[in-house]
Amino acid sequence: MKLSWNKLLCEERAYMPQDRPGSSNNQDPRNEFQKDYHRIIGSASFRRLQDKTQVFPLDRGDFVRTRLTHSLEVASFARSLGQMICIHIMENGLDPEMDTDKTDKICTVLECSGLIHDIGNPPFGHFGEDYIRYWFSNKLSGYYYKKDAVTDLLTEQMKGDLYNFEGNAQALRILTRLHYLIGNNGMNLTFGLLNTIIKYPAASTEIKKSKSIIHKKMGYYAAEEDIFRRITEATGAVDCRHPLAYILEAADDIAYKTADIEDAVKKGLISYRDILEALKASQDKAANFGEHDKYIETIESLERRHEKASSDHEAVSQWLITRVQSLLLRSARYGFTSNYKAIMNGEYPHDILYGTQGQTLADVLGDLAVKHVFRSKDIYKLEISAETILGFLMDKLVKAAVNYDPEAGGKISVDERIMSLVSENYRKAYADGAKGKSEAEKLYLRLLLVTDYICGMTDGYAKKLYQEFSGII
Hints:
The protein is mainly α. Helix content is 62%, strand content 1%. β1 (144-145) and β2 (148-149) form a beta hairpin.
């Protein structure tokens, strides 16, 4: 397979304006990806990210990152990294297709993808995503539709979609189906952009442990398989990753791994000494990747900075974060361009920091976050609160959704009242998708309606709804 930028930067949409006579606007100077940008920042789904946790659920501080600020940072890193990579490709003649026009489009696609890459994530950060998987895996078997166990009615892929719930797959669902802009086509974004956010072009039944990153997680639900196929066939990235997905992933990794440390320093969870000791402990590992000189230089610079800054550990840590971000961006550029042929052949199985001078640094930052942040008492207490809220809402909503019948008449039950709270757009999407489907398919779509509603909630709304349902006024 040889991928081509002429197809990868596909400007086709599920619904094209020319489908409606006289609707095109030839006076608009923007290209299709620039139009995507304006659709995204004007959307309610994007605005909700301002009250969704990145790391610290239900935190009342005003300096730690939310999903919105994180997404803005990823968009910035992705655009910068894309520009660095495109310039390198042109200067070194790696691809005759690459030119300044494609570079501009690539940078816009990457910026847009950074803005929407977390748009499908539920409230309460990474924990919220993990808990939804846990709930379906451990509790769904206890629910019945009429006389049959729900899990006996669903296909393996339907169950896999729920057991392996993934914010990336939910993002594709929101953008192509749930965000009501033009009919039932969601935000109706370009296929080139939509393909970029599909990090894992695999179904839930195709998840497996292998050397290839493609099958690490699922990238789409069974409900969106048709639009997934249409997108990948239009871009040519069939059964492989879109090249820009590698760049988006690297930008996301750089943003959250450095931001987690910065936020943790400000909250007093990580000290200058913790960072320095972690770097020193990884010197041997760094040497294996040819990073030893860089490591020694970084450690020595960090110690000199600390001596000059006296007790201002936060200032020293901030300097280190800036330095690391720069190094990781350069490493990602090298990782992409040095493996350019394999990436464009749809054969590269790793992330683009793999085997670069930045790999050990990225690993150290990730290990620090796990040890000092994700396993801290502060996080545990917040996650226990989040579990109480999500568990309560999932119990109520799944019970209501299993027997939900919008066409039934008669007395309105409590479960029907609960389902009436779900967004009208989401319920309309269910009604459209359920037409002509079997009972099992409708049941599956109703369960997705629960994740649609949950993932559309902000942290604050989920907490408020829990309090209202519990009679806590």
